[in-house]
Design brief:
Elements lengths: L6 H6 L2 H12 L3 E2 L3 E2 L6 H16 L3 E4 L5 E5 L9 E6 L12 H16 L8 E6 L12 H7 L18 H11 L4 E2 L13 E7 L4 H4 L4 E7 L1 E10 L16 H16 L7 E3 L3 E4 L9 E10 L2 H18 L4 E10 L2 E2 L2 H13 L4 E6 L5 H4 L5 E6 L15 H19 L1
Parallel strand pairs: 3-7, 5-6, 5-8, 8-17, 9-16
Antiparallel strand pairs: 1-2, 3-4, 4-6, 9-15, 9-17, 10-13, 10-14, 11-13, 12-13
Helix pairs in contact: 2-4, 2-12, 4-12, 8-9, 10-12
The chain binds glyoxylic acid and manganese (II) ion (3 copies).
């Protein structure tokens, strides 16, 4: 019998332990409606990491951190020199996030490794559980900084000058964070600093969409991730008195924003409803009712599974805005570009086989959300496993997956990791 179907391993995954850990972590940053607000590189983030580290050390995993704050928990294989299998996700949340996005992938990785150790399954390869820094991009934009730096997609100093809402730079927040974790073992920044390339990477995550629940399925075998591009647009006009300045003389940044977004809606219209286009964060200065707005900054989140559409429509954004606005100076900055990826069939097969062996119903499906796994694709064979999200709700305090669904996901993860780690 292969380790992937070993009954001891499956039985060693504890639904109660995993759920209890998730609920303990959910208290750190709890907000009304069962939500969590735990921004990256904050004292709350560090408290959550220490809780996780305590559980990992209690079962004999070794702990280390890298220069961008990625956290690693290592289970030693029988051949410590062999390239490790990696699993994990992120521990930061959206400002009004739920209890499962990201954190479940980390807790499930720990549950899977604990089950492997407790059931006596021996893996040749080591297994490393990673918590990537700033996946959400909620405090510092964009997301996925930890995995982008680790994989060599972008230099680690790319985001030094990015600020949060309080004007704190990413560089300063990271420096403070690293000082607070200087007692932990330090390791290089992955393959870009000469660390080993993993043998494979498998990330567990809640689906964040409605499909699995609607189709009565247990497991999503993720086939790939659509592409995403993020832009920051600044429109700069002139402030004026709302009671006196004639409309024809104004350089009103809010009115130009409305023109720009209307034109972008036309550019992004998609009768097939595949394209995703979101304007969700808007800053206005001076932000008072009786002064004409001088500056508006707004974000664009644009996604599509087809690389050509991503390039064509994404590259048309700036000119569409410039043609639409009447009075303002325009600056468009691209802050994130994740190309669509296909996952490796070997990893997909390992997940699908594990689900089938456990009598679970699965489907191969693409991901609409981006994930750190997107940046692992050029580095090593990569895949993901999804569990259902109730009503597909996510990035919302009401996000929910049941203890049973999450346990099924952890069992599939445990079996697939055991297969990959040999
Ligand atoms: C990640 O949180 C995403 O926006 O897809
Ligand atoms: Mn996530
Ligand atoms: Mn998220
Ligand atoms: Mn995400």
């Amino acid at each position: 019998m292969s380790s992937a179907t070993a009954p001891n391993l499956i039985a060693a995954v504890s639904q109660e332990r995993q759920w209890d850990r998730l609920m303990q972590l959910a208290r750190l940053g709890a907000i009304p409606g069962d939500g969590v607000n735990r921004p990256c590189l904050t004292p709350l983030d560090r408290e959550a990491r220490r809780l996780l580290i305590g559980w990992a050390e209690a079962i004999g995993l070794s702990v280390s951190v890298d220069p961008i704050g990625n956290l690693f928990l290592r289970h030693e294989g029988t051949d410590p020199a062999a390239a490790p299998v990696m699993t994990g996700s992120h521990m930061d949340t959206q400002p009004a996030g739920g209890r499962f996005d990201g954190i479940w992938g980390v807790v499930a990785g720990l549950e899977a490794v604990q089950a492997i150790r407790e059931s006596g399954v021996r893996t040749t390869r080591s297994i490393e559980i990673v918590a990537w820094t700033n996946e959400e991009g909620g405090r510092f934009a964009p997301g996925c900084m930890g995995s982008m730096a680790w994989s060599g997609h972008s230099p680690a100093d790319t985001w030094d000058a990015v600020t949060d809402n309080d004007g704190v730079t990413f560089r300063d927040a990271l420096a403070e964070h690293r000082a607070a974790e200087s007692d932990l073992a330090q390791r290089p920044l992955g393959p870009v600093e000469g660390g080993p390339k993993p043998y494979a990477y498998l990330e567990a995550h809640i689906e964040q969409g409605p499909r699995l629940e609607a189709e009565g399925l247990d497991i999503g075998v993720v086939s790939g991730i659509q592409g995403s591009r993020w832009f920051l647009v600044e429109l700069r006009g002139e402030s004026a008195h709302a009671g006196t300045a004639p409309l024809g003389m104004r350089r009103d940044a809010v009115q130009d924003m409305i023109r720009a977004v209307t034109a972008l809606n036309a550019l992004m219209a998609d009768p097939e409803d595949i394209l995703r286009f979101t304007v969700a964060r808007i800053e206005v200065e001076p932000n008072t009712s009786n002064s004409v707005a001088e500056v508006v900054r707004f974000t664009i989140d644009f996604r599509h599974p087809d690389k050509e559409v991503l390039i064509l429509n994404g590259d048309a954004i700036e000119n569409t805005i410039r043609s639409a606005v009447k009075n303002c100076d325009v600056t468009v900055t691209e802050r994130f570009h994740a190309v669509p990826v296909d996952f490796d069939t070997v990893v997909q097969d390992a997940v699908e086989d594990a689900a089938r062996a456990q009598g679970l119903r699965s489907v191969r499906m693409p991901s609409g959300a981006f994930h750190d796994a997107q940046f692992m694709v050029p580095v090593c064979p990569t895949g993901m496993v999804f569990v259902p999200s109730h009503k597909g709700i996510s990035h919302n305090p009401a996000e929910y997956s049941s203890p049973e669904q999450l346990a099924a996901g952890a069992r599939v993860l445990a079996a697939a990791l055991a297969t990959l780690a040999g």
